[in-house]
Design brief:
This protein is of the alpha+beta class. It has helices spanning about 5-80, 90-100, 140-155; strands at about 105-110, 115, 125-135, 160-170, 180-190. About 55% of the residues lie in helices and about 20% in strands.
Amino acid sequence: MSQRQHHFVRLTKPLFGLTASLLLGVALALWSHNQAEEAEQARDACRKSKNQIELRLHQAAAEKNELGGRASLYQELRSTGIAGKDNRFIWTEILDSIAKAFQVRDIHYEFAPRIPLDKTSGNAWPYFSSTLHLQFTPLHEADFLTILADIQRQAPALVLLRSCHLSKTQSLEEGAIRPLHADCEMQWLTTQPDRREQ
């Protein structure tokens, strides 16, 4: 064996060790790079999951506030009589007591049948309308306006004045005081929550 071959054989082991170390270093670098990518992906997935949970919590809090607002609105509507079944007996008692308080001599009223305002099925809060045709003879014009305001204030419904005509009645005697005559149409709105939706 020549000296050159002898040196080559002596260098083979260190060169092999160096090559093996380089390959091991590259393998470790690739492995750590893959681990870092996987850790970053896991972190991104956790962050995304956390953001979704926070969004759901925020939506739940908003829905809770909305439901609380709806519940308080429903209680307010119920306390005023707007929500619930129509009680026409109470309606007529209110009209009679207002007429008595203002000494209305002649009062006639008629409620039309209740009709739904929105005919869409599945509405949790259906609204209904009852038209009131009201005729009465107020003592003077100020009473006329106060009577209408009292009806709107006392009625267990949302009362909308649709039309009103105030005129003086015909008198057979010349120079006699001609009493006033009011002919009004009012819309009484109520709501009755659908029990199937509750």
